[in-house]
Amino acid sequence: MIFFTADTHFNDPRVLRLDRRPFANLEEHDAALVANWNEAVGSGDTVFHLGDFARGTSEAKAALLSRLNGLKHLIHGNNDDAETHGAAGWQSVAAYAEIEVDERHLVLCHYAFRTWNGMGRGAINLHGHSHARLKPMPRQFDVGVDAFPFRPVTLAQILASRKGGKAIGPAT
Questions:
Q1: What phi-psi label fits residue 38: left (phi over 0), alpha (psi between -120 and 50 degrees) or beta?
Q2: Maximum CA pair distance of the chain?
Q3: Helix, strand or coil for residue 87?
Q4: Torsional sign, CA 132, 133, 135, 138
Q5: Which domains does the chain have, with CATH numbers?
Q6: Are 75 and 53 in contact (CB under 8 A)?
Q7: What is the tens place of the pLDDT at every residue in 86-129?
């Protein structure tokens, strides 16, 4: 399966304060995100992380990546430094990507777009960065952990989120 997420901000104490994430401390935050990731994602699954992965050294980030299930691709964000880009464990690192999933054209970037390639032909823009604070546009979805409670999600779950409630839980 293919999963999407963003804005995990592992090892970044600012998220507890700025985003009011419901964890007592950073250790609890990081442990919950790792557990939720591994509950959703299997070892053979693919995850596109749309930026703002973690703070720390490249070694710490590589150790964290080794604890997370799946084949991981980074679409880097404004908080992803050279150590994040170079950390062992990424299958690829890019600023932008276009992929096909379930016969849907997806435009992936850390940032939300006002317009994107294929928009008029049904292409979907997946992004992070806004921490679930932007008013949604048609065919545009924030896939960050603040929008989808602290776990990677499938395209089916993302699309279901606008059809009467978030479809969180086992992948559909």
A1: alpha
A2: 45
A3: coil
A4: negative
A5: 2-160 (3.60.21.10)
A6: no
A7: 999 999 999 999 999 999 999 999 999 999 999 999 999 999 99
In whole angstroms, give the CA distance from residue 143 to residue 162.
Answer: 13
CB-based contact 51:74 (threshold 8 Å): yes
Q: How many CB atoms neighbour CB 44 within 10 A?
A: 9
Six token digits for residue 26: 């950073």
Question: Please, is 142 exposed, middle or buried when counting C-beta atoms within 10 Å of its C-beta (0-12, 13-18, 19+)?
Answer: buried
Stronger pLDDT, 164 or 112, i.e. the higher one: 112
Task: Give every CB contact of residue 25 below 8 A, 6+ residues apart in sequence.
Answer: 16
Query: Please, is 18 exposed, middle or buried when counting C-beta atoms within 10 Å of its C-beta (0-12, 13-18, 19+)?
Result: exposed
Query: Are the beta carbons of 114 and 165 closer than 8 angstroms?
Result: no
Q: For residues 131 and 44, what is the distance between their CA atoms, to the nearest angstrom? A: 28
Contacts for 75 with CB less than 8 Å, ≥ 6 apart: 48, 49, 50, 51, 94, 95, 96, 97, 108, 109, 110
